[in-house]
Amino acid sequence: MTNLLGLDIGTTSAKAVLFQLDGTVVAENEQPYPILNPKNGWAEQVPTQIEEATIHAVNQVMTHINQHQLIGIGLSTAMHSLICINEDGTALSNAIIWADTRSSNESEQLDSSIYLSTGTPLHPMSPLSKLTWMKNQDAQEYHEASYFVSIKEYLLYRWFGEKVVDYSMAAATGLFNIHRLNWDDQALRAAGITTSQLFEPKPPETILQDIDSNIAKRMNISVKTPIVIGGSDGPLANLGIGAINPGETAITIGTSGAIRQFSREPLLDTKQEIFSYSFTEDLWITGGPTNNGGIVLKWIQEVVSNEHYEYSMDELNQLASSVSPGAEQLVFLPYLNGERAPFWDGKAKGSFIGLTPSHNKSHLIRASMEGVIYSIYHIGHALERLGNQHDVIYASGGFARSELWLQILADTFGKPVKIPNSHQSSAWGAAWLALCGIEKYQLEDIKDSIPMSHEIEPQNSHHKQYQKIFSVYQKLYYQLKDTFHELS
């Protein structure tokens, strides 16, 4: 039996998932690592901790098969991380991740025309803003660095000695011209760096071999195992769930969340509400991320629990299910970590609107879950403005384990939601890209190799209720924006 390995290096953990060629999961292993918050608004991770977690996750799933049964490995990685490294690949800084907002002022001062070349909204999530902050702060690591890389390039350089980056990871930096598929001169000038300090952009099917023998031994793989550089977790989640054609929308909610569609050309406009990243030479991924997905449910879990009792996620779902759609006119703005699309405002704040004495913890939980979906729905409206339709929705990520959250999604959009058997869509997308690179499969062939679980139909009465609440929700940010900024 032959197998593929999808390696998904995310915000909070590294996941190694072993698949059969039909998409069936053979084994999976997840290894967590912490997010550090050394100062208010800072979010960092230790690169060596991520590397160790990644190696261990691969090692654990490889105990289920022999080395010769593995066709190859595909990589999926979270976007927007920035690490300063020296010539031998040693990290001079922690990885500054997407949730870091230290460069809010820099992102506001950047020339807005850069967006029309890069497709990356000007926001503190992007390495462009982070590099500009480092330049303005005269940071020592900035001056000493030989290269500026994401966590994926960091690992590939250490494992193979290769200086390569796939198109979608490059596009997520805000330094990459998505029309010409190379580094953008205007963005580089703003960041104060040169092309020589970045790695060479390559198609996602690019194969690397001859991994460092010590790394291969620790992973329990052959040094000849082909590793395909893959892409970022967003487009790979679309691929892994089969949302490839027009009208097929993928919604992923893990720690954060996103709504995305593939397009045959970049979709950009001056409002800068959404991103448009390169994926292959003739495919772009268009959509928008929210900073606040599963992290909101984790937060409300801590709020309603106490030192004597912690509610489980199942109990949170049960409590929320006891409340009718709309949480009895309680609305939650889920901007706990600022917000990306469609506002791109790191100073936005979370807020409950409409609290009365009749509301209890069940209402707070349901309103929190609904607020995350409203945020996704809001971004969906921006996509529709640019011509994208949401005919069928494919759901992936940790939230897909909650039938209630999926029903809220279907009811809010008023569209059916398709659910795969495996929630590891980014990993399957990465594994499939490995198959495309090694065996010359086509991207669209994956549609025959995605084991689907079930489909959730929207309830019309609930959809009408959510439309009423959303008409209030979508105005609240603009009404409170000045207040949010004053509080910051």
TrEMBL record:
SUPFAM superfamilies: Actin-like ATPase domain. The keyword Hydrolase does not apply. InterPro entries: ATPase_NBD (IPR043129), Carb_kinase_FGGY (IPR000577), Carb_kinase_FGGY_CS (IPR018483), FGGY_C (IPR018485), FGGY_Carb_Kinase (IPR050406), FGGY_N (IPR018484). Residues 250-435 form the Carbohydrate kinase FGGY C-terminal domain. Belongs to the FGGY kinase family. Pfam families: FGGY_C, FGGY_N. This is Gluconate kinase (FGGY family). Residues 5-240 form the Carbohydrate kinase FGGY N-terminal domain. GO terms for biological process: carbohydrate metabolic process. One of its GO terms (molecular function) is kinase activity. It comes from Aquisalibacillus elongatus. Keywords: Kinase, Transferase. Transmembrane segments: none annotated.
